[in-house]
Design brief:
Layout lengths: L5 H12 L3 E3 H6 L4 H9 L3 E5 L2 E4 L8 H9 L4 E2 L1 H7 L10 E6 L12 E6 L1 H5 L2 E6 L2 E6 L1 H10 L1 H4 L1 H12 L6 H10 L3 H11 L1
Parallel strand pairs: 5-6
Antiparallel strand pairs: 1-3, 2-3, 4-5, 7-8
Helix pairs in contact: 1-3, 5-7, 7-9, 7-10, 10-11
Length: 203
């Protein structure tokens, strides 16, 4: 990187303060010119995670790059279904795409990478059970295990009942098993009648 480029040094400091990962739109709002981002990229100071998304190259490798990219590219999305099961480690499935929940009527996000599957939730179902976690300095919105299980029962035809029941078995084996929360989210998702027999069978 040219030693004379004050803009580059200033941009690096700003990106580091913002957690090390930045979208082009956020960079512009922070007063960083796109040309500066390109200079930093060409100098090997920034790597391109996805179109319009950059990360400092001197940071440790991202533990879950797909979730980080989706969280930065689609901040309003919530990680759901099999992707949430995988995040909470209650499935043996390896998601081939990141499953996200967005509001009904919202425009489908345009992401070149990673592949995503989009599910539109009603407002009560969208907002219920959302947790915020940090992955490598980036905030990730993901449904809690109980809400995820209720969602999986609701979308059982897409997820596969074998995957749903496997997740329920793994969840039941945890010390944090909470029947009340499961029933509460089953009501939110309107699948209480469907879930109850399976919950009773696991008790």
């Amino acid at each position: 990187m040219p030693a004379t480029s004050k803009a580059c040094h200033k941009a690096l400091d700003a990106i580091r303060e913002m957690g090390g990962t930045i979208r082009t739109v956020d960079a512009i709002q922070a007063g960083i010119h796109p040309r500066t981002l390109y200079q930093l990229r060409d100098a090997g100071e920034l790597e391109v995670l996805s179109r319009g998304l950059y990360r400092l190259t001197d940071l440790e490798q991202i533990s879950d790059p797909d979730l980080v990219i989706v969280a930065k590219r689609v901040p309003q999305a919530v990680i759901c279904l099999v992707s949430a099961l995988a995040y909470h480690d209650i499935t043996t499935q390896i998601p081939h795409a990141v499953s996200i929940a967005i509001p009904k009527g919202a425009e489908t996000p345009r992401i070149d990478y990673p592949p995503i599957t989009v599910h539109r939730f009603s407002e009560p179902a969208l907002k219920a059970g959302v947790e915020t976690h940090q992955i490598d300095g980036v905030s990730i919105s993901v449904y809690c295990p109980e809400k995820t299980l209720a969602d999986c029962f609701k979308f059982r035809n897409k997820v596969g009942m074998d995957i749903v029941l496997e997740a329920l078995k793994f969840y039941k084996a945890r010390k944090t098993f909470n029947l009340e929360k499961l029933i509460m989210y089953a009501r939110v998702c309107r699948v209480e009648k469907i879930m109850r027999p399976y919950l009773e069978a696991t008790l």
